Structures are given as structure tokens and as C-alpha cells.
Amino acid sequence: MRVFLLPVTLTAALMSVNTALASGDIEHFKGLPANSLEQALSNFVEYNKRLENILAGELTTETMTQVHELTYTLENALERIRQDSAELAETLEEVHLASERYDAEAVRKHGQDYLKVSSQLVH
């Protein structure tokens, strides 16, 4: 079971996702899309493993290019995670406020919405 720690993920996501090298002689890639939180988390796990494997070996011109390319996919994933985490925090606030008002219907609705998204962070 893999657990994605929200604080760690949020910290990483809040770091600038625009840190790719801006040199004119380095080709830039789009990376894999992150059209959903599920896709973002899948790419995040897979591409972190790829990065870890590369870092475990010698950093050559070829592996540096591989790192450069894979960071685009990681940046896309982190941006999606950041966006969805911000929305998730807003949904949780709705649960909190509804509970203060003892609004059972709103607690149930917002609570289910929250759990639907937050459950994707824990596999």
C-alpha cells in the first residue's frame, strides 16, 4: 500500500513548477499530461522511480537529458496535484463549516466529495 503524504506532496507542489532550464540550446518537451488526479499520481510515482534510478547511476550527458525530459512530466503531475489539493482543502473547509452549523446534509455532501478525492491520495 502506497501512501501519499499530503503535506509532502503539497510542499513539493508549491515549489515552482517552472524550474526547468531555460537555456536556448536545450530542447524542451511537453511531458505526459496530467488530465486527472489519478493520472497525475500515477505519473508522479512512475517518474519519481525513473529519476531515482537515474540518480543511482552515473550522471552522463545522456542521463542528464533523460532527467531533463522526465522533469516535464513531473512538473505536469505536481501542477495537477497542487490544483486538486487546493480544491480539496476548500471542500474540507466546507465540511468544517457545515459541521459548525450542524448541517448534516451539507456535511454528508461535502464529506463525500472530500473523501472521493482524498481517497485517491492513498492507494
UniProtKB/TrEMBL annotation:
This protein's UniProt keywords: Signal
Signal peptide limits: 1-22
Annotated InterPro entries: DUF6746 (IPR046634)
Species of provenance: Pseudomonas jilinensis
Name of the molecule in the record: Uncharacterized protein
